[in-house]
Amino acid sequence: MWSDSVIYNVPLGVILLLICGRENFQYSALEVKGEDEFGGVYRCKDTDTDETVLLKTVFIRDSSECVPSSILTKISLLKVMEHPHILRLLDVVNEENRKHVYQVFECAGPDLKTVIKKFPGKIKNPKIVKVLLNQILRGISLYHSIKCIHGRLNPHQVLINMSNYTVKLADVGMNVAPSYKAPEILLGFPTYSFSADVWSVGCIFAEMVIQKPLIDGTTEFHERSSIFRLMGTPSEETLPGVTTFFKFLDCYAKSEPKDLATQLPGLEPAGIDLLQKMLRMDPKERITVNDALEHYYFGDL
Question: Most exposed: 30, 100, 142, 231, by fewest CB within 10 Å?
């Protein structure tokens, strides 16, 4: 954590005041959703409108410089992303001292991880899983249509209105958890593309079905092990370039791929087929988001 970030053991309502140092700040914190060395995410009340919003703070390390172009680019993209399954960016506030940029988003229900933990029976219905997955894919399709990779997909980024099972994809969290990263990222490939998002969606799909992560691991080492146990230890045949970019394959036990149908016994054959196409080790062989939306698994929607 940086030195002037959140000070703990203080009321939530003054957290953002401590961060921004302005008494007239418009947003009052209700809950800390997450923090890392780059910023934080908070559920807040807009004191002007009395509405609940999500506020993402981005810490700028060198406040003598302008707002980094990477942040400006992301904000510009979010401003044009008008889509029923993407969380709307409502406002952007830049501090006078340039230490933080605040992005204000609509608030749209609990995240999928919370729903699975607190209401496990709510999305066990195969039809509900199918409806949610379809909406996730539709949201990601907009990202890909404008040549943008989400790159942070995990269940915390999938917000669900439990009254009608409407999904909103967020882009307000911390870095993507290890258990949802694509193999090419975990294995040090220098570039990755839209197919990395497809892998993450596949992991989320499986988690909705079995109510726990398909690929488990709190560190990248453990996640690589988990992927290899499920998908088989990669080789140049299954993942071209792996021996060039990852020099430690010999540190992992050799494994053969498992049958996904045995890992997800409650998923219908069409769903297994789609999941297999999402979780290909070679990113070039993964199904695209648009092709996934046309898959016969969704034929009865």
Answer: 30
**Cβ contacts of residue 38 below 8 Å, gap of 6+?**
58, 59, 174
234 is in which domain, residue-wise? 112-298
Q: How many CB atoms lie within 10 A of CB 75?
A: 16
Apex 265 CA angle, 221 and 195, nearest 5: 50
Q: How many CA atoms lie less than 13 Å away from 66 in the CB half-sphere?
A: 3
State the CATH number of the domain containing residue 74: 3.30.200.20
Closest CA to 228 of 160, 279, 175, 171: 279
Has residue 3 been placed in a domain? no
In this structure, the answer to whether residues 212 and 273 fall within a common structural domain is: yes
Dihedral sign for Cα 117, 122, 126, 129, please.
negative
How many alpha carbons fall within 13 Å on the CB side of residue 284?
6
* Residue 56 near residue 117, CB atoms below 8 Å: no
Last residue of a domain, one of 106, 137, 162: 106
Q: Burial, 278: exposed, middle or buried (Cβ in 10 Å; 0-12, 13-18, 19+)?
A: buried
What is the CA 237 to chain-centroid distance, rounded?
A: 29
Alpha carbon distance 139, 244 (integer Å): 34
| Structure token digits, residue 232 | 């088989």
- Which pair of structure tokens corresponds to residue 249? 């394959």
**Single-letter amino acid, residue 146:** I
Look-up: residue for tokens 């009608």? 164
